[in-house]
Structure formats: C-alpha cells, structure tokens
C-alpha cells in the first residue's frame, strides 16, 4: 500500500477512528498491530511470513540472550539472530546478483555451467525491518536495552506501519520507551500507554504529512520525466545536460525520500509516537561527513553504531584503519541500496569522500579550524564543492548501465561547454525545470528561516487550512492519474 | 470542541474544500483536445469512412492518396487521418464514443515504441498473490463515473498543461483558430513547413553513428497502462463491428538497431499478444523504409512531400487486404 494512494488515506483514517473510539489501551495496540500487518499484507501478500519470521526469531533470541550469563552462549545466539536476518536479506535481495556474477565468471573462464536465476521479487521493507530487529538484538546483547516483555509490544515495534516499508530505521531504545510510557512496574501486564490524540501532535503530524505529499507528488513525481529523459540513454549527451540531470535527480530523490519520511513521521506523530528525523537539510552540508549526518540519518547512524565503530574500535588511532573502516562501511551502505554494481560504486565513491575528508581532518588539523571555512565565502564554497561531488555520486545511484554511467561521469567532470542539447532539454521540460528551481528556492528559505514545517503548523486555523487547500490543489492539478511508488521502496 | 477534534475538523474541511475546488476546475476547464474531437465527430461525415489513428508518426499519411487507391479498386471510402501529436491510446479512449458514433468501417492505428513509454513513472514489482488479496480502492473507484469533462479526472495534469498552454498561446498570439492543415481530411494536424524537408545526414548523426537511441523505459504488458488502454480501445471498436488494423510506424533503421534488447522484447511481445488476442495480423512497418532522404528525424517521415507517397500507398494496400 503506497502512501500516495487513496487506499492508504482510507486505511489511516480507519485506524485513527478505531483508536479514537476504542479507548482501552490493550485493544488500541492490537488495532495498531493488526493495522500494521494488514498494511504490509496489502502490498506484500504471502511475503508477510518473512516479517513474522524475523519478529519471532529476534523476540525469543533476545529474551534468551538477556537471561543468559554465559558469554559464549550470548555470542552464539547473537550470531544465530544475525545469520537469520542477514540470511533472509541476503537470499531475497542478493541471490540473483550473486548468481549473475558467478555465471559471468564462469563465462569468462569458458565454463559451460550456468546457474538458473531464482527471479525473486524483493520483499517490501526487508532492508529496513531486518536492520531494525538486528539493532534490537545487538542492544540487548550489549546490555543497553531490556528485551520486550510481551510479543505484541515487540511485534508493534517491528511492524509499526508508518515506517515499516522505507524507514526511518527505528531504534528500540527510542521507540520501546514510548510504548512503555506508563509502565511503573516492570511486572505489570499493562504494557502500552493509551493512545491519546494531542492537538499539537495532530496539527504538526498533518502538516508534516502534507509537506510529504507535496514533496513527493507535486515535486518529485513531476521532475521524474526530466531525469528519465536524460538518463535513459545519456550516451552523446552534453556535459550540461548530464549535470542538469544529476541536479534534477538530487531534487527528485530528496523530494521522494524525505517526502516519504515526512509522511511516516507525521502519521506516527498523530498516533503519538515520535520517530527521529531522517534528513536535516543535507544539501547544505559543508563536508561529506556532514552530509551523512544529514542524509538518511537512521541508516548512517545504524552503520556507524553497529558496524563501523565496533570494527575500528580497537584500532581507532590508526588513520589507515579509520579509512579502511569507512570504505567498508560505505561499501556496505552502497550494497544495502541494491544488488547492482552501480550501487556499490555509489557506496565506494561516498566512502572515498568521507574517508579522505576524515583523514585530512585528522592528519592536517590546522585545516579543521582554519578561519576561511568559518567565513561566508568559505561556507558557500564548502557547500558547493560538497554538493557537486555528492551529485556526482548520485549518477551511480541513478544509472544502472555501466557504459551509460561511465560516460555520464566523464561528462560531469570534464565539461564540454556545449549547450545546444541542454537548451532543447530545458525547453521540452519546462514544468520539471520550474519545479526543480522552486524546490531549491523553498529549500533554501527553509534552511535560512529554520523549521518551515513547525512554522506552518503554528499558523492560525485560517492560514493553516489555506496552506492545506493550496497544497492539495497543487498536487491534484499536476497529478497524472497514476500513483507511483517511492524510490526507496525498491531497496 | 476538543482541540484535536477541532484540528481534525479543519483538516477534513481543507480536504473537502480542495477536492471541491478541484472538481469545479475540472468541470469548467475547457478540455480543448476533447472539444476539438467532439466538434469534428459531431459533423455529418457522409459515406463510408476509414479513420487513421496515431501520433505525429502518421503525419506523413496522405488520406487523399489512400482514398484514391481504394476507389481505384472499387471501394468507395473516405479516409480521414485523425492522427494527433502525443495523443496516445489513453487519450483516444476518452473520445471512443464519438468515434463509434460515426460508424467508421475501419480504424487504422499506427503504434511505436514511444506509444508505450513510461515517461518517468516508477512502478515497483509486487509479489505474486498466493494468498487472497484485499480489494484495491483504486480499482473500485475506477468503476464510478463522475459526470464531468470526460477523462480529465484520469489525468488532471494533461488538462492543466493544455489549459496553461492554450492560455499562453492566446496571450502570445501563437494560437490559431483555424490552423493550416497539410492535407484535406486531417483535422488535427497543423502544417509546419520544416516537416516536409528531409533532414541532412549530419543532423541524423552523432559521433559517426546515426541518431542515438533515446527513450524511456517500456513497462511490460501487465504493467503498461497505455497498452491496456489500446486493448480496451480495440475491444470497444470490435464490439461495434468496426474493423481494426494495427501497424507499427516507420523509424530510421539505425535508430531501431539501438533499441535495447529488453525493450524490443517487450514491444514484440505486445505485438504478438495483440495478434493472439484479437486474431488479426499486426503489420510491421517499423523497419521497412531505409532511404535517407525521407526522414525529418529518426521517427518521422517527411510529410506533404511526394517522396513519402509510398507510405500512403502501402497503408492503402494493407487496408485492402482487410476489407476484401
């Protein structure tokens, strides 16, 4: 069920209505769990068993880990949990990719054998909920979290529908306390607070959702044809066309993904749950490291906490270890996005950026505090260079064909200064260009003026309704009748 | 009133108000394309008729040549070339009732890869539904007929862009009430002088190769809504005993050779599927014409030029195979 469909709107209203009517907290949380599973089943059909498997596996394993004193046994159970979740993810997401590489290698060595593909459909949300349950088990293993007492509580944490399909990846440490808010006594059976709709949450939540819908349906979906036109076959394209395409894709993917996140966070807020933000003005980041503190924050922080830091902890004073650790972390981030070489290249490029930046900061400390980077000009240059390089890496994110990708990268970096084709592209995609520029301007205003969403949610009702009416009208008037999925649903 | 309830009330009001305004706009916005077609089909078109559908790919078809060829063989039909730029099967479906009301004998439809492009739409792959699947509201709602400008609600973006374009053309003086047509019986074509001049070889070349393939993804049969619309169009016409001829429109051969294998496979599967379902032959003309001096670009033959009269003659022959 995609957020931008009438099915979701009706479903969400129904869930809210049911919770508003049924005040008993036990039944409220059952409605949420039931609704979340229905939400997942709607799009995934029989693949819901994978979600249930992951939930059961980690609920019981975490309990046993918590109650076990033996360190070796704890480790073994953790390994089983990791194996189960990563095995699921690996099989459904990467098996055909692995088979393809094996077959290519076989062809290279003239071996006659070719393994047939499984042709599996990627289960929706698997990259997100497996990481979520893994983080839960690891936190319990580390002793930083007590396991859920009841299966229903844990099931709701895993399957909570606003963030189930495409994140943000929730941490149990942030979410479970919200579920346990009114638990005074750990032995108490009343393990979920009653869901009460607070006005500030409802208004902010609806505003967030409105922003999300506008970002996705008005901006991202109407910029997509421009991006598609440029990158379907960029061979022969001028440099400025490729650069235009990269910028347009950056706006599209940000509008699409942050739009989804806004809808998820808004929906959760209406239900009274605070989900941490996933974006913080990433296109104003002054460095590659800062970019990843602002882009897909839940994923980058997950990789940092559960992969990178444990990996380099013992050798954190070694520059080489730091660099290699970052390269590995970002290689895996790239691979997480998709079973294809272009995503791996994306990860490697980003790892290189962050690695080099981190090493320079460590080895050349005077640059870190150099006055130039504190000036306005220095800030602008830092942002411009960071984003130009980031959008360069987005080419790998967008283009799957290797010939197309390397051609585009070459044209992006070695500018040919031709403009004929670029002007023709701009003229034939006026709407996309106008929307792209408008989005950038609004984004800049939001960066300068602070949190626009909060400002809008604090408007008096007259202006707030005017904002909603305008937003909905804009979406409807440029809607082509076909709800398209979010880009990150493919991951 | 509880504050949260008040907020909810205002949010619902906003939704109702915006949807109402939207429906009002859709009901009053002149659907210029629809009106243009309505005006044409409302005329009294005497005699037996043959309609040609397609996009700008069929601009080179001269209906007078086809009419003359048919008359020569003893078939007294009047041929109308109703092709229109970027007017795909979904758009044709909106005016299908008008078409049927004219009771043409035959509808000849030229299709191409471009007919089925995705144009940036992103559709995720869903797993096979091994368990019972919940009903999708979108499917239910599509059966509800709202008495507004027909079809505009299917694609409000189309209506908005058309209205804005129309307004802009009127303001800049570009709009012509009665534009010049390249041939008689081509009510939706606008004559443009450049389209009758062949492109120079250098304009069709890029880095030593002919025009590089540029396009969009084509979704396969089960996910391609334009293809579904085409089939629905054919079914509607067949239900009213209107013969349908499908042909693929000519393209520069070198361009065709660059079409990705996967796209070629999907397109061919569409043609095969059409032949199987409707039990007719799809005439494949897309790689038939290879001379260099008959193209204005890789997908358009020059029109209003006797060098491409053979195209009209070939279509006439195809029509004859069906009406005999």
Overview features:
heterodimer, A: 491 residues, mainly alpha, 71% helix, B: 324 residues, alpha/beta, five-stranded parallel beta sheet, two-stranded antiparallel sheet, 10% strand
Instruction: Give the tally of β-strands of chain B.
Output: 9
Count of alpha/pi helices of chain B: 11
Helix/strand/pairing class of chain B, anyone? Answer: alpha/beta
Number of strands of chain A: 0
Mean pLDDT of chain B: 83
Order of helices and strands of chain A: HHHHHHHHHHHHHHHHHHHHH
- Main β-sheet description of chain B: 5 strands, parallel
Q: Largest sheet of chain A at a glance? A: none
Share of β-strand residues of chain A: under 5%
Q: Strand portion of chain B, in percent?
A: 5-15%
> Share of helix among residues of chain A?
over 70%
The strand order across the widest sheet of chain B is 2-1-3-6-7
Most extensive interface? A-B, 56 and 54 residues
Q: Give the radius of gyration of chain A.
A: 24 Å
The chain-level mean pLDDT of chain A equals 88
Q: Can you tell me the overall shape of chain B?
A: globular
Distance between the termini of chain B: 76 Å
Tell me the radius of gyration of chain B.
Answer: 22 Å
Unreliable spans of chain A are 182-192
> How helical, in percent, are the residues of chain B?
40-55%
